[in-house]
Amino acid sequence: DTGVSQNPRHKITKRGQNVTFRCDPISEHNRLYWYRQTLGQGPEFLTYFQNEAQLEKSRLLSDRFSAERPKGSFSTLEIQRTEQGDSAMYLCASSPWTGEGGYTFGSGTRLTVV
Amino acid sequence: AQSVTQLDSQVPVFEEAPVELRCNYSSSVSVYLFWYVQYPNQGLQLLLKYLSGSTLVKGINGFEAEFNKSQTSFHLRKPSVHISDTAEYFCAVSLNAGNNRKLIWGLGTSLAVNP
Question: Chain B residue closest to A5 (CA)?
């Protein structure tokens, strides 16, 4: 098991473009979370999945953001019509169903919108 | 609703000195408590967690934390720090009942260990 994998590590995009990030969780973990982190801040919850079902979305997740986990394995986070305010580190984490042990995080995808 | 307050945004300390990073939480229901560490340009790594039982919890890299229910605190300590401990440290809580295991985070404490 190689842990939680996120791709790409870095993404620079022009304002208005669409971007998609991928997260591969630990294989036996059925919960998957997306967080966003800006400089000097703690992570902000975006959304989470239990298997393929998206159980909660934050108010932070505007209609330009969409996340999927079609087969209950990997997940994608898409941002449409990117804005400079979307520049942040996007973190993915996974956990077993109980979640008591805390999450295992990936290394994140750093998005820069120019 | 739950909230987490990390009382110090920055903690400078000399190498081999002891350190305490403070965390207080607010919740009307029981919670699980966590400390994570984040090195520059990296994801978050779990240092330790409190779920139940003994209030003194030992984690990786020589860190420990004590859960104090009456003071709603979960302070992180290390008796002797190393340069390599320089990082951002985050305290977090989640509900310990129901289906939601979403983490609520503090703003982080930046630990700078100086030679």
Answer: B43
Three-state DSSP class for residue A86: helix
Report B:32-91 residues touching A (Cβ under 8 A). Answer: 32, 34, 36, 41-46, 49, 51, 90
Give the pLDDT confidence of B39-85 residue by residue, as tens digits: 987 889 999 999 888 999 999 999 999 999 999 999 999 999 999 99
* Cβ–Cβ < 8 Å for B14, B83: no
Distance, in Å, from the CA atom of A96 to the CA atom of A51, rounded to the nearest integer, reads 10
CA A54 – CA B52 distance, rounded (Å)? 29
CB contact under 8 A, B94 and A105: no
Q: Number of CB pairs < 8 Å for A and B?
A: 62
Inter-chain residue contact B90 with A101, CB threshold 8 Å = no
| Residue B51 burial (CB count, 10 A) | 15
Please check the confidence at residue B98 and state whether its pLDDT lies above 70.
Answer: no
**Token code pair at residue A86:** 């979307």
- A8 cis-preceded (ω within 30 degrees of 0): yes
A28-77 residue pLDDT tens? 888 999 999 998 888 988 999 999 999 888 887 888 999 999 988 999 99
Cite the DSSP H helix spans in B1-115.
none
